[in-house]
Amino acid sequence: MPQLNPNPWFLIMLTSWAIFLLLMQPKLLSFIPTNPPSNKTKTTANPTPWAWPWT
């Protein structure tokens, strides 16, 4: 069964992770987000209780 032989696939996996971590990740993290989070204070809504007809 060729799936159990890690010889070629382990090197491919390590190479792809090294490319991602060393080359792609710094480029992706340098982008400025287009919609940055704002510093608004969160307001909590006070819902009115439901008037159930059977209570």
From TrEMBL:
Can you tell which superkingdom this protein's organism belongs to?
Eukaryota
Q: Which GO terms describe its biological process?
A: proton motive force-driven ATP synthesis
Main location, first listed in the record = mitochondrion
Q: Can the keyword 4Fe-4S be found in this entry's annotation?
A: no
Q: Which GO terms describe its molecular function?
A: proton transmembrane transporter activity
InterPro entries tied to this protein: ATP8_metazoa, ATPase_protein_8
Transmembrane segments in this chain: where? 6-24
Cellular component GO terms held in the UniProt record: mitochondrial membrane; proton-transporting ATP synthase complex
Q: Where in the cell is the protein located?
A: Mitochondrion membrane
Give the start-end ranges of region Disordered. Answer: 35-55
Task: List the keywords (alphabetical).
Answer: ATP synthesis, CF(0), Hydrogen ion transport, Ion transport, Membrane, Mitochondrion, Transmembrane, Transmembrane helix, Transport
Give the Low complexity compositional bias ranges. 37-55
Give the protein family: Belongs to the ATPase protein 8 family.
Q: What is the name of this protein?
A: ATP synthase complex subunit 8
Q: What's the source species for this entry?
A: Casuarius casuarius (Southern cassowary)
